[in-house]
Amino acid sequence: MPSTRKRTSGVVPFTALRGDGDTPLFEQLYAAVREHIVRGRIARGARLASSRVIASELGVSRFTVIAALDQLRAEGYLATARRGGTFVASELPDSTIRARPGKLAHAAIRPHASSTLSKRGKALTSISISGPRYDTGEPRAFRPRRPPLDIFPFAVWGRLLHDEWRARRHATLDYGDPAGLRGLREAIAEHAAATRGVRCDANQIVVTAGAQQAYNILFQLLLDPGDEAWIEEPGYLDVRGALTVSGATLVPVRVDASGLDVGAGIAAAPRAKLAYVSPSHQYPTGATLSAARRIALLEWAHDTGAWIVEDDYDSYFRYRGRPLASLQSLEGESSRVVYVGTFSKTMFPSLRLGYCIVPGEIAAAVANARAVADRNSSIADQAALEIFIRDGHYDRHLRRVRAACIERNDALQTSVRRHIGDALTLGQMNAGTHVLGWLARGLPSATQIESRARAEGIVLFPLSRYCLTKPRRDALVLGYGGLAPRVIDAGVRRLASYLD
Question: What is the SS3 assignment for 339?
Answer without folding.
Answer: strand
